[in-house]
Design a protein that fits this description.
Blueprint lengths: L8 H35 L11 H32 L3 H10 L5 H19 L3 H7 L4
Helix pairs in contact: 1-2, 1-4, 2-3
């Protein structure tokens, strides 16, 4: 069985730092979106469900929804970047994407991902380990 290519510790940690920020921003953005939807359809929705909404919350929703969509796309791209740098299996990538879909889950997913990054960087060979072991380094 061939030995796996070493990870780049610095690139992995940098990628995770970007993903961490994106996770927190996505979590907050999703909570804001859920709050807007509750205000639009439940609190100010009137008697008929989904038919009579407040014009203010309808406008706020139409402005915030695309912003949240852009934030989620950035989150996905940064999650993909982390996944590539860590050389994880496909199910891990799908899990990273799922963390950004369920409200509040991105905060827990970020902590779990941090632990996984640390464990993998401890257990798997890195370029920095090779540089330290090389003679004359």
């Amino acid at each position: 069985m061939p030995t796996p290519r070493p990870l780049d510790d610095v690139a992995c940690r940098t990628s995770f730092a970007r993903f961490r920020v994106a996770s927190i921003v996505e979590g907050i953005a999703l909570l804001v979106l859920v709050t807007i939807m509750i205000m639009r359809y439940v609190v100010f929705g009137g008697d008929a469900w989904f038919t009579s909404t407040s014009p203010l919350w309808e406008h706020v929703s139409s402005v915030w929804s695309p912003i949240h969509g852009l934030i989620y796309m950035i989150y996905v791209i940064l999650g993909f970047d982390l996944w590539l740098k860590m050389r994880w299996a496909l199910p891990r990538m799908l899990l990273l994407m799922f963390f950004g879909v369920v409200p509040v889950l991105s905060f827990f997913g970020e902590r779990w991902t941090h632990q996984q990054v640390e464990v993998d960087l401890q257990q798997r060979p890195t370029l920095q380990d090779e540089a330290e072991a090389a003679p004359g380094a």
